[in-house]
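User: Quick sanity check before I run a bigger batch. Here is a single chain. Can you write out its predicted 3D structure?
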Amino acid sequence: MNHSEELRQQLHSINRKSYPAYKSLKGVYQFGNYLLSIDHVQGDPFASPSHVSVQISHKNARFPEEYYKDPLTRTTLCDYLTRQFEKQINHFSFRAKGSGKSGLITVSHCSQEVLSRTSCEINEKEITARFFVGFPANGRTINATELEKILFDFLPVCIQKSFFYSSLNAQELRNYIELAEDQDFIRHELSKRNLCAFVADNSILPRESGISSRPMKDSIPFTAPESLCISMNLPHKGTITGMGIPKGITLIVGGGYHGKSTLLNALELGIYNHIPGDGREYVITDDTAVKLRSEDGRFIKDVDISLFINDLPNKKNTHCFSTLDASGSTSQAAGIVESMEAGSHLFLLDEDTSATNFMVRDTFMQQVIKREKEPITPFLERARDLYEKAGISTILVAGSSGAFFHIADTVIQMDNYIPKDITATVKKLCSQYPLPTVQASEFHLPQSHRIMTKATVPSSRPQHNGHKHGSDSSSRPERLKTKVSKTDGFSLGRQEIDLRYTEQLIDTEQTAALSLLLKYAVEHLIDGKHTLPEIVKYLQKNLTLHGLSFFADNQNIACGYAVPRLQEIYACFNRYRRP
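Assistant: Done. Predicted structure follows.
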């Protein structure tokens, strides 16, 4: 380890040299009460910025031990520190001048949800913060004087104000930690009380706009209907009241623009903890919940969709169904089965984004097209068995078909953003408008045995066989460079992984992490012998034990990654096109 003055001397020695001389700065330097590490140096001032990190011991940072005692509090504290650091560096970014990205200082931008990110990590010894710096140059000539400003003037101020307990608002930080513990308490209460979701009174569900996740000003606060109102005594906030949505089949109905989809959107993001002031802090959903929809054209490989689709005219085997170009109904059937495999206990659906013929067949259509001529068993006929025999609840937004009323345990009407429990009224009406008796085929849990294989490209070069877990020398993997397209997906080699309809993927950094996991799996795990669940289980185990750095080259992770849920890992791997 070197002292900071040695870094200063090195900067003086390389000033006005060619840009590659910056690479000599790689290393760790002692800066008073923290360590600064230059982990990766960019190739030129127009390339992606350099990777820099700092380490602060707990002895120096002096945060209360209860603020990092478990994964929940560590993630919350890291999120808070990243937000504080971003505020500070925004005052100094591009204050140092030069060409291209010279003077850029940037870190992860956190949204309304709290995610575990590589921008800040805490272990038993220290806090590690990672960020990016554009090393300054004039053209491609080093301007070390400007980098000296960043490393010795700007960053010390930002670090002192962001990562040391004495510099922060102690009460604000305590509120963050206590809110996270209250949210976790509610999440555990859901299963104890046989609930799948909770929406607190006075929550603000509408968002500012379609491109903003901040709460809408002057919105109507949420008020639970009396029949569904429950109270919880939280560890820190005390007693709160709100709507408890029971397990089973829940229907959300109402006129257009009255808040049906707004409520569903709040529930689908209730799998994440939210920051204070978000308005949805106490909207908590079963953390295995999956938002499902149809995805015309998606890839499906070896999925048992026979629970919903059988006896296709082309005689295709639906017990092990594959297609490069799925229809709306087959894609939605596959999505349900894949989510069951991923361990989901709650399905969230909106009739507007579902395949109509997959969801329901009305009475008249059943008379015209006889049962034996229709290969699809609609979701309407499977939802009850999914709950009673597989323990999977459903929350469904419906606006056109009244058939769903007949299977619902709870019916919530949204009226100008105010929920009303109309279950009793609906049950009376159902007796006046009975559905014809339909005998669906016997329910069975899907049985998929899906071996993962690699997508390959022709190669005249010999295969290098130095991977940790071996590889198939008869073919080589695609050229494994990745490029992330926000939350829409990423490219892996020549293949595009389309995640546009994985709606609970909310941050580009989660997409980047999925690209890292899939790249690792293709390079080291996929061998034509192990199943998809076996590979995902291995990834999840090491993600829990070691974090995302385990999957990075040389286990040297940078800023810019956020941990995805198990459900999104499955969704990503299911969309990887392979033989």
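Confidence is low (pLDDT under 50) at residues 458-478.

User: Great, the batch can go ahead then.
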